[in-house]
Every structure is written in structure tokens, then in C-alpha cells.
Design goal:
- The protein has about 250 residues and is mainly alpha-helical.
- The protein has two domains: about 120 residues, no CATH class; about 110 residues, Structural maintenance of chromosome 1. Chain E (Arc Repressor Mutant, subunit A), CATH 1.10.10.
- It has eight helices and five strands, in the order ββαααααααβαββ.
- It has a three-stranded antiparallel β-sheet with strand order 3-5-4.
- A hairpin with a 5-residue loop joins strand 1 and strand 2.
- The longest helix is centred in the middle third of the chain and has 28 residues.
- It is rod-shaped and about 100 Å long.
- One of its GO terms (cellular component) is cytoplasm.
- Belongs to the ScpA family.
- Component of a cohesin-like complex composed of ScpA, ScpB and the Smc homodimer, in which ScpA and ScpB bind to the head domain of Smc. The presence of the three proteins is required for the association of the complex with DNA.
- Participates in chromosomal partition during cell division. May act via the formation of a condensin-like complex containing Smc and ScpB that pull DNA away from mid-cell into both cell halves.
- This is Segregation and condensation protein A.
């Protein structure tokens, strides 16, 4: 279907390609390169009605909402053609623009369209992504966690308990400006290995930190370092009782 616009260009519409009258109007505004806040109602109305006539000529059913919008456009067009009031009731009050309500509907519909398109993009991106099952703990590391059925989740739960006890004991020192090299996993690995090697027997995890100088970032980094040492098979951990302290020693 081909229609001529106000610049004598040609507009091509794919029948039944629109989801509703607002969708069709947005298409017309875009094709005519109009400002959505300053719609040329006369041109848009003519093209909109031509679209409906074309649908009827092809014996296509025209939904009632399209006819309602046609009546709305004709009403706005007629109001714009009426003579402007010479004097307003209030000099400071601007005359109401008959197009304002339609513009608000178009803006809302445009927002819905953009949101729907974004959701479709995210869904398509998700379909192109593939998740993998959790990585298995190496057998050598599993053996170090078998005593008392100790699992990584037990370590995580105990780590949370350590932080909670320390919060109750004193206010944690938070470093506002931390240099990237201040606490790293590799430096904490070296520190843990040194602590364990200097201690005879089992060493409680919370004894790795001075209670009067506890820094949250160091505790978190040390816990990650501990997990890495367990993975490498260089540290053995145990928990003698449920919810009891977790102890570690070198292998």
C-alpha cells in the first residue's frame, strides 16, 4: 500500500503490521519526520484515513479502536480549524492544545514499545548464553574436607559467624581508600601458610586476625585465600562439632 505525504514522498505500509492505532500513528509520524510534540494533524489524519480506506477496499476488517482513533483525529483537526479565541479568561493561562492528550498517549505507547524491544533483546541474549554446572572440587581437596562431613558451605557459614562475633566485639574498621595491592589473595596465601607453619597442631581460623585491629577487607581476602589453599591441597581443615570452630593446618 502506497500513500503520498506532505513532502510528495511515498509511504509504504505493510497491512496488518501494526498492533493498534497508536502504533500506526507513531509509524506515520516517523515516516513524515514530524516532531511528536508538534504533530501536523491535517497530514496525519489524511494518511490515517487513507490507510483505513485501503483496508476496507481489500475487505479487511477494521478494528473498532482504529475507527475511534479516526474520529479522535477528525475532532482534533476540526478544533484546530476553528477561529482562535481573541481573549482568554485569564491572560496568563495558555490556550489548551487539542493535540495534548493524543501526544501523551503516543509518548506512553512509545515508552511501552521501547521497553518491549529491550526485553526482547535481553531474552534473545539469554537464549545465546549457556550456563555450566558447578565445578567439581578436586579429589585431593575433597579428602581434606571429609572429616566430620565438612563442606565448603560449612566454611562459608563459619566465616559469617566469625564476622558476626567480631562485629559484636568491636566496630569493624573499614578502609575507605584501599590500594589494589593492599590485600590480595596471593599475599594472604603467603600469610596463611606462614601462620600455619609457625603453629604446632590445629589453628582456629579466627586466630589468624588480631581482634583489636580487624579489617573487613583482610578477613574476606583471607577466606578466599583459604579456599584456594584447600583447592590446591596445601591446607587441611576440620570441624569437630556442628557449628564449632573451624581449624586448619598445613599438609
Amino acid at each position: 500500500m502506497v500513500l503520498a505525504d506532505r513532502k510528495s514522498k511515498q509511504l509504504t505500509f505493510k497491512l496488518a503490521a501494526f498492533e493498534g492505532p497508536l502504533d500506526l500513528l507513531l509509524h506515520l509520524i516517523k515516516q513524515n519526520e514530524m516532531d511528536i510534540y508538534d504533530i501536523q494533524i491535517s497530514a496525519i489524519t489524511s494518511q490515517y484515513l487513507a490507510y483505513l480506506h485501503q483496508m476496507q477496499s481489500l475487505s479487511l476488517d477494521v478494528a473498532g479502536e482504529y475507527l475511534v482513533m479516526a474520529a479522535t483525529l477528525l475532532s482534533i483537526k476540526s478544533r484546530l480549524l476553528l477561529p482562535q479565541h481573541e481573549e482568554l479568561e485569564s491572560p496568563d493561562e495558555p490556550e489548551e492544545d487539542p493535540r495534548q492528550e493524543l501526544v501523551e498517549q503516543l509518548l506512553a505507547h512509545q515508552c511501552y514499545q521501547l521497553t518491549a524491544n529491550k526485553l526482547q533483546e535481553l531474552a534473545a541474549k539469554r537464549r545465546r548464553s549457556y550456563s555450566r554446572p558447578p565445578a567439581e572440587v578436586p579429589l585431593a581437596s575433597q579428602k581434606l574436607l571429609l572429616k566430620k562431613q565438612l563442606k565448603i558451605t560449612d566454611l562459608e557459614r563459619y566465616f559469617e559467624q566469625v564476622l558476626l562475633r567480631q562485629r559484636q566485639r568491636l566496630q569493624l574498621k573499614r578502609v575507605r581508600h584501599v590500594r589494589p595491592e593492599k590485600f590480595t589473595i596471593e599475599t594472604e596465601i603467603k600469610r596463611l601458610k606462614k601462620k600455619v607453619s609457625q603453629h604446632v597442631g590445629w589453628l582456629a581460623f579466627d586466630k589468624l586476625f588480631a581482634p583489636d585491629d580487624l579489617i573487613l577487607e583482610q578477613v574476606v581476602t583471607s577466606f578466599l585465600a583459604l579456599l584456594e589453599l584447600i583447592k590446591r591441597g596445601q591446607i587441611e581443615v576440620q570441624q569437630e562439632t556442628d557449628l564449632g570452630p573451624i581449624k586448619l593446618r598445613g599438609v
